[in-house]
Amino acid sequence: MTDDRFEVATEVLDHVVELRPVGEIDIATVAAFRAALWAAPARPVVRVDLSGVRLLSAAGVRTLAAAHLRVRARGGELVLVDPAPVVARVLRVTGLHRVVPVRESGPARALLTCAAA
User: What is the pTM of this model?
Assistant: First the structure.
């Protein structure tokens, strides 16, 4: 069934790398999500478009928190974009939204100001 598939598309630009996971991020898929995050080349902004994520489990939250620390250690910023309402609620309930910026979509270039600030 195609609804059960999990995929992560990655686009690399000069100053931004964007990951677009689609599906559910849970214990069964978190390893693939983590691998995509860790494989992303160093850029000032790592943008994770969460619009295609239907579910974000505790394992996914831990992975995003670890990715935030990893990206920050390299001098960059992790930014979460367009979470679905259920995912946005998980980010709020866990407090991750206070640690990792959550934004509405816009041109990737607009996010560069986040890294420069």
Answer: 0.85
